Amino acid sequence: MNMRAGKLSAAELDNIMTVVANPRQFKVPYWFLNRKKDYKDGKFSQVVSNQLDMKLRDDLERLKKIRNHRV
């Protein structure tokens, strides 16, 4: 695709949102995902929007608890 985001049809936009929500179902490689080896469950995942903020906050709290964070 080489179209601007505002020019996409509703079907194309839904298709893109489906791929972003479930990247492993569309055979996206592990190295392409933004959450590698989650600390709690050990899985690779694609984290978006407010989930990303929540995961970052959880990671920082965990690092503060074990006194391994950098200021």
From TrEMBL:
InterPro entries given in the database record: Rbsml_uS13_C, Ribosomal_uS13, Ribosomal_uS13-like_H2TH
An example molecular function term from Gene Ontology annotations: RNA binding
Pfam families hit by this protein: Ribosomal_S13 (PF00416)
Residue ranges the record marks as coiled coil: none
Gene3D superfamilies: 1.10.8.50, 30s ribosomal protein s13, domain 2
Keywords per UniProt: Ribonucleoprotein, Ribosomal protein
PROSITE patterns: RIBOSOMAL_S13_2
UniProt GO BP: translation
Cellular compartments per GO CC: ribonucleoprotein complex; ribosome
Sequence similarity: Belongs to the universal ribosomal protein uS13 family.
The protein's name in its UniProt record: Putative ribosomal protein S13
Species name: Medicago truncatula (Barrel medic)
